[in-house]
Design goal:
The structure holds two protein chains of two kinds. By secondary structure, chain A is an all-beta fold. Chain A contains no helices and eleven strands. Chain A is globular and about 45 Å long. Classes of the chains: A mainly beta, B mainly beta.
Chain lengths: 112, 110
């Protein structure tokens, strides 16, 4: 089992709809959870982080964390073509708080 | 100027050659990382360093070595490059959990 799992996609969502990206992780001791966005040929950039169970909202983005289910998700409201990218879920490891494990990413495509 | 820079940005080399990829940062962070990215495999950690005297292997360190010359500089070496080391390489820095990535180096080993 991979430490951080994501559906590779592509996930196709119509413009203006809600895009839902999901991620599961295996280390129950993980404390920090991140979503990075990566445009093709570019470096990853952080868009959200979450530490506590529940929802965290930032503009059109909402991160959701459920530690009991070892599940973290990212919702993108009012999807725009500029949201088309690969989204990487990342989780810190219990053994080393600064060592982050990345999922393989979900490719999101917003269709006009 | 970019906070995290990588040189070269692109490199084509031949099997058996020694290659060095360099990373510099102006963010003042102690922690630096080297990752490689392959299609469908995401980012995989090669080596990481929490300060100048600290070097740690990541999940795929075989065939690679690193040097932390200063707080701001962390270089990755391939002593004898092989074709399956063809990938996109990223350097990153952090002061906590959030990582800041360089622009990447696209390496092709023929």
């Amino acid at each position: 089992q991979k430490e951080v799992e994501q559906n590779s996609g592509p996930l196709s969502v119509p413009e203006g709809a809600i895009a839902s990206l999901n991620c599961t992780y295996s280390d129950r001791g993980s404390q920090s959870f991140f979503w990075y966005r990566q445009y093709s040929g570019k470096s990853p950039e952080l868009i959200m982080f979450i530490y506590s169970n529940g929802d965290k909202e930032d503009g059109r983005f909402t991160a959701q964390l459920n530690k009991a289910s070892q599940y973290v998700s990212l919702l993108i409201r009012d999807s725009q073509p500029s949201d088309s990218a690969t989204y990487l879920c990342a989780v810190n490891t219990h053994s080393s708080a600064s060592k982050i494990i990345f999922g393989s990413g979900t490719r999101l495509s917003i269709r006009p | 100027d970019a906070d995290v820079t990588q040189t070269p940005r692109n490199r084509i080399t031949k099997t058996g050659k020694r290659i060095m990829l360099e990373c510099s940062q102006t963010k003042g962070h102690d922690r630096m990382y080297w990752y490689r990215q392959d299609p469908g495999l995401g980012l995989r950690l090669i080596y990481y360093s929490f300060d100048v005297k600290d070097i740690n292997k990541g999940e795929i360190s075989d065939g690679y070595s690193v040097s932390r010359q200063a707080q701001a500089k962390f270089s990755l070496s391939l002593e004898s490059a092989i074709p399956n080391q063809t990938a996109l390489y990223f350097c990153a820095t952090s002061s906590g959990d959030t990582q800041y990535f360089g622009p990447g180096t696209r390496l092709t080993v023929l």
